[in-house]
Write a structure and sequence with these properties.
The protein is mainly beta. The protein is about 10% helix and about 40% strand. The chain has helices at about 125-135, 140-145, 155-160; strands at about 20-25, 25-35, 45-50, 55-60, 65-80, 80-85, 90-95, 100-105, 110-115, 150-155. Strands 1, 2, 3, 4, 5, 6, 7, 8, 9 and 10 form a 10-stranded antiparallel β-sheet that branches. The termini are far apart.
Length: about 160
């Protein structure tokens, strides 16, 4: 086991009113702290999902764990071949390398705090997703940046068959 010690001097303070939001209904992502702000310790966003909305398709991170904390609502989280239904106050941490995805549970909205550690510069990834939503880039462009954002997409029969 290796120990990663982040290096940064000042506390990271992000005021709600100052945080950039990308997307909107049905998926809004509030960009809170990127890896560079925390000396590489973490990247964190808040994702708000409309009723039954998909958050992220199945993927894995080779170098980071991902934490999902349910602030409100109910979400389905794929972890390997299992789908966990998490409610308000529940925490799911997916280890590096394990396939995962998330969505609002059918009939529910979801408000999630998501933390990736160690951090990866991810804000530009979410802006890239927004460009795809707006038709300014094609979905295939995500394949070109998988290594850059340590976000590697894959297929999951478990996830695809959940609804």
């Amino acid at each position: 086991m290796s120990l990663f010690v982040p290096t940064f001097d000042d506390s990271v303070i992000v005021r709600d009113a100052d945080a950039e939001v990308v997307g909107g209904d049905p998926v809004a992502v509030k960009l809170l702290a990127d890896s560079s702000a925390s000396g590489g310790a973490l990247s964190t966003v808040r994702v708000t999902l409309a009723e039954g909305a998909d958050g992220a398709r199945p993927h894995r991170h080779h170098h980071s764990a991902e934490m999902f904390f349910l602030l409100d609502g109910e979400a389905q989280v794929l972890s390997g071949d299992d789908i966990v239904t998490a409610g308000r106050g529940d925490l799911v941490v997916v280890p590096p390398g394990k396939p995962h995805a998330f969505a609002a549970a059918p009939g529910s909205t979801a408000d999630l705090l998501i933390v990736i550690t160690p951090g990866v510069e991810r804000f530009e990834y979410f802006r890239h997703l927004q460009r795809i939503r707006l038709g300014e880039a094609g979905p295939e462009s995500l394949l070109e940046v998988q290594d850059l954002y340590d976000n590697h997409f894959l297929r999951s029969q478990t996830w695809d068959g959940r609804r």
